[in-house]
Structure prediction request, 412 residues.
Amino acid sequence: MITLEIDGRTVQARPGQTILEAARAAGIRIPTLCYLEGLSPRGSCRLCLVEVANWNGKLVPACATPAEEGMRVVTGSQRLKELRRMVLELLFAERNHICSICVSNGHCELQDLACELGMDAVRFPYRFPGLSLDASHEKFVYDPNRCVLCGRCVRACSEVEGAMTWGFAGRGVNTLVEPDLGGPWGESETCTGCGKCVQACPVGALAERGVATAEQEKRPQVLAEVTERRPRV
Amino acid sequence: MSEAKGKVRVATVWLSGCSGCHMSLLDLDERLLELARKVELVYSPVVDIKGFPDGVDVTFVEGAVGNAEHLHLIQEIRKKSRLVVALGDCAVTGNVPSMRNPIPREEVLHEVYGEGEVPGLEEGEVPKLLPRALPLSMVVPVDGFLHGCPPPAERIWRFIQRLLSGEALTLSGEDLRFG
Prediction:
């Protein structure tokens, strides 16, 4: 076992476990968005950033950093609170997150994070991009206006379903999640219609067809439930 | 904070919104009587007054800044109010009025009014529509934010209590939920 310190508490981790896993096992909450149990970690949303005090306060994503012997981790300093809030504000400013008309209103991880991280307003100018909704699939709808580019759909599709329908296209702020190298989702040759991407999506970007405002509840834990039942190789 | 009878001078304004936030304000119900003992409503859609008065302590603004009149009014409000509070998601984020923002202004107006004479295209009897409906904080400094579409009356009440007791105008936790 590895022994490390998180917020002054002595915590143990198995070799290979991440800081986030060690913290969760000890009941210490670190906010996350792109992390989802059952999928490989990406460390792309930066909301789980923590400081390692004995690495000169270096910032590392807790979800993608292995716990190490003697590590002293800080999860809630003022600096981290400010950084996380800024990251969240940038996410809100980047697309058109209009909670009041969203299928995921009241069941949304982005909305929950605004409450948790104390975001009263966005200090950055909103971009208001013009993005088209894809309602071509017989079972699901994709609205890129609500996408946070966490990539949970991409990983659920490739790592759990094995279909590899979803992928990233474009770069930076113009990045889009797209099915089958672009084109309508309904015409995808690889999509199995399993819906794992919808369950993995933390916001209202992927939703079941026909749900109205605030009706889309999800079970992202289904990804871990599926992978835990699989035989280990 | 004192003018007439030591009461707090409060204004409420309705810009590009649906009046739902003002309805929520009225949902304070019997607490409005308690409020009436402490505040003087000096400007509001429910007050018969033409111009925005001087020396306002706090102005609650519902709605986004969507046209030239809103832009003029919010700047006047900022000059004449000690505190400006964004009341509801439209004022805080742009919300529903901002859904037109990705579409060019002219296209929006022609879609709504057809090809004939289009009000709002230029300054006239109807104020000119701005290219984008903006949250207040993208136009003027804002001192407090009340989330929700509309903000529940309980949330508004908690905010007003903080305001009247001179506490920081910040809410937390569930009170920061949009939508």
In short: Residues 68-80 of chain B form the longest helix (13 residues). Chain B touches chain A through 32 residues (CB under 8 Å). The two ends of chain B are 33 Å apart (CA to CA).
